[in-house]
TrEMBL record:
NCBIfam families: HAD-SF-IA-v1, YjjG_YfnB. This is YjjG family noncanonical pyrimidine nucleotidase. It holds the Pfam family HAD_2. Signal peptide: none annotated. The lineage of its organism: Bacteria, Pseudomonadati, Bacteroidota, Flavobacteriia, Flavobacteriales. PANTHER family: PTHR47478, PYRIMIDINE 5'-NUCLEOTIDASE YJJG (PTHR47478:SF1). SUPFAM superfamilies: HAD-like (SSF56784). Gene3D superfamilies: HAD superfamily/HAD-like, Putative phosphatase, domain 2. InterPro entries: HAD-like_sf, HAD-SF_hydro_IA, HAD-SF_hydro_IA_YjjG/PynA, HAD_2, HAD_sf, PGP-like_dom2, Pyrimidine_5'-ntase_YjjG.
C-alpha cells in the first residue's frame, strides 16, 4: 500500500462478522423453537450454497429481499426432501432475521486489527446486508464505534459491485479513490467492485478461493498489517 492511504472500507458479513457461525447458531435455535426435526448439518450443507446464489441474484437485482428470504429456505428444504408449509417457511424466515443479530461471533483477529488500523486510518463499512440487521450486529459484537461511516445498499438503492454504492461511501467519508482501499471476502462484490472504480482492494480469502495472482489477499485478518 502507498503511504497516501487514509481510509479503509470493510465489508461486514463474512469479513468481520462470522456470518456462517452465527447463522448456524440461529438455525439451531429457530428449528428448536418451531420443532423442525431435520439434521442441522444436512440442512446447512445444502442451504449455504443456495443462500450464496440467492445473494448473487439479489446483488444483480434479479430477486427481491422477500424472494431471497423465502426462496433460500424453501429451496433448501426441497433439496433435502422435507415437505414444509409455506406458513412455516414464512415464520422461520421472520425468526431467522429476529434471532440472527443475537449472536455476535467475529472472525479471529477482528478486534486486534480494528484496534491497530483504527489508530492509523479512518475506518468505514460498505455492506449489502439488510439495513435493519447490520447495525444490530455491529452493536452486539461491540465494533460499531470503530467506524466513521456505515454505507448500506438499502440507503443507496444499489448493491456492491455497483459503482454507485462505492461512490456514495466515498462521498460520505469525504474520501477519494486514491486514498482509499476496500477489504472484503467476495471477489465479485468487494474486490472487483472497488477495482472497477479505481480503488485498491484486498480480499479476505479465508475460504481459499482461486484468485488471480494480481489480487492482494490475506487468509487471516491480522495479516492486513503487512499492507498497512
Amino acid at each position: 500500500m502507498t503511504n497516501t492511504i487514509k481510509h479503509i472500507f470493510f465489508d461486514l458479513d463474512h469479513t468481520l462478522w462470522d456470518f456462517d457461525k452465527n447463522s448456524a447458531l440461529t438455525f439451531e435455535k429457530i428449528f428448536r423453537l418451531h420443532n423442525i426435526d431435520v439434521n442441522l448439518n444436512t440442512f446447512l450443507k445444502v442451504y449455504e450454497p443456495i443462500n450464496f446464489q440467492y445473494w448473487k441474484l439479489y446483488r444483480e437485482e434479479k430477486v427481491s429481499k422477500e424472494d431471497l428470504r423465502y426462496g433460500r429456505l424453501k429451496d433448501a428444504f426441497n433439496k433435502i426432501n422435507v415437505a414444509i408449509l409455506d406458513t412455516i417457511v414464512d415464520a422461520l424466515s421472520e425468526d431467522y432475521i429476529r434471532y440472527l443479530t443475537t449472536f455476535n461471533h467475529l472472525f479471529e483477529g477482528t478486534i486486534e486489527i480494528l484496534e491497530y488500523l483504527g489508530d492509523r486510518y479512518q475506518l468505514h463499512i460498505i455492506t449489502n446486508g439488510f439495513k435493519e440487521a447490520q447495525e444490530k450486529k455491529m452493536i452486539a459484537s461491540n465494533i460499531k464505534h470503530y467506524f466513521k461511516t456505515i454505507t448500506n445498499s438499502e440507503m443507496v438503492g444499489v448493491k456492491k459491485p455497483n459503482p454507485k454504492i462505492f461512490n456514495y461511501a466515498l462521498n460520505s467519508a469525504k474520501a477519494n479513490v486514491k486514498e482509499s482501499v476496500m477489504v472484503g471476502d467476495n471477489y465479485e462484490a468487494d474486490v472487483l467492485g472497488a477495482l472497477n472504480i479505481g480503488m485498491d482492494a484486498i480480499c479476505f480469502n479465508y475460504h481459499n478461493e482461486d484468485l488471480p495472482n494480481t489480487i492482494k489477499r490475506v487468509n487471516h485478518l491480522t495479516e492486513l498489517q503487512k499492507y498497512f
